[in-house]
User: Fold this.
Amino acid sequence: MNKNQISRILLPLVALAALSGCSGIEPWVKPYERDRLADPIMFLDMDPVSSAYIYHVYEAREGARGGEGTAGGGCGCN
Amino acid sequence: MKVRAAERELREEAAAAISPDERMKIMLPAIPGQSPMQKPVRRPAMRSIASLFVAAVFAMCQNTLASVLPEDRADFLYHRYEGGGVTIDGPSILIRKSVGNSLSLAANYYVDMVSSASIDVITTASPYTEERTQYSLSADYLRGNTTMSASYTSSVESDFDANTYHLSVSQDMFSQLTTLTLSYSFGDDTVRRVDDPTFFRDNIRQHYGIGLTQIVTRNLITALNIEVITDEGFLNNPYRAVRFADPDSPIGYSFEPELYPGTRTTNAVGIRAKYYLSYRAALETQYRYFTDTWGIESHTGSVGYVHPWRDFIFSAKYRFHTQTGADFYRDIFSRSEATNFRARDKELSALTSQTFKVSVAYEFLPRGWGFIDKGTVNASLDYLIIDYDNFNDLSTGALLGSEPLYQLKANVVQVFFSFWY
Assistant:
């Protein structure tokens, strides 16, 4: 992915994000309807310290990286 | 009617202060089986200098909705990886504390104690032990619906140092149904050799990330992550060797140092979704597509299930990963220096990886104790199986051409205590 491709993805998102700050969009899920989403079992990352560790294991044992979650430093190559 | 309208207004005001992020929590209504609420939290977000401009635009256009900082909590984790002749264990301690209403600080201390007699090591080197220590400091600053985060991470081991600087900006929008995160990090690594004090090589890493979290329905939350990572410098392992056919050798092959390209760019797009089931359980699925300039292409998917019962939360997950090999990877090269770049790192081979995970969390001190609001203890086991499509097991002593393919099996155990205060 070169810089032009990155720009093509970034610019519309930036424009969308910037405009959204000025608009008053009516939420289709009302704030008082978010009780289920607020349940801890619905957190996408229930334990950040634990998931950071397991993603580090995957990065060390597979050829792919990124796009799943956080990652630490260091090699852990062998 | 006035009372009902006032109640609804209060509920909306309370809930409006909540981030749609995965760390969000809500003040009302109470959830059956759930402990009293902690402070609302939000995921530390993004990174990118350009995004500071976006943040400025956001700041000018903000309405009265407000986001929240991460929770004050401490985690004490013990991790242990064991498999393929390698044992890695150690602690990880994370402590986070707010300062005032707009700033949250965090510090992390992490150690890997490595004892390695891996397939690479026993075929071309000698078993070894070493230790890696990592420190991280981070700060999250909240202004309106915008969270700005900065962190510094230092990782030190006997032959590899890494310094990483990270910036991110996260913005809640569309009445907090959507969270956009932009991130950037810069890494400066130094590679050394323990047997050669004059050996120093540099590596520069840069991460660019975009994350979008979206509430779709009252039962469904989704997330999209795009991450581009570039490396430039010395990217291969200074010890690892490739093997090549050598008719002068009694075993039919010899070894020479591997040689990687000096640059690498990787692209990853990940999507995930979590769905709330009517009997209070959750179903999660995730997919990632990955490609890079070394010729690796991969698909990774997972499904998970979370089921609370009394003060316990049980979860299970299956993850599948498959990838093609790097263009310059060979199990055996036809001759010495057969190609410009050469690798026999099994992680660059075509492979299939499967993980089976189970975990349980138990909440104690539900009513608090002293300054502690609550605590949990967690235990998890990941069973990892990797089948390599093009990496032969040389440790069996089989003749050249008849070696079996290598398979790695590993157990990853984590036990940790978390406290909220």
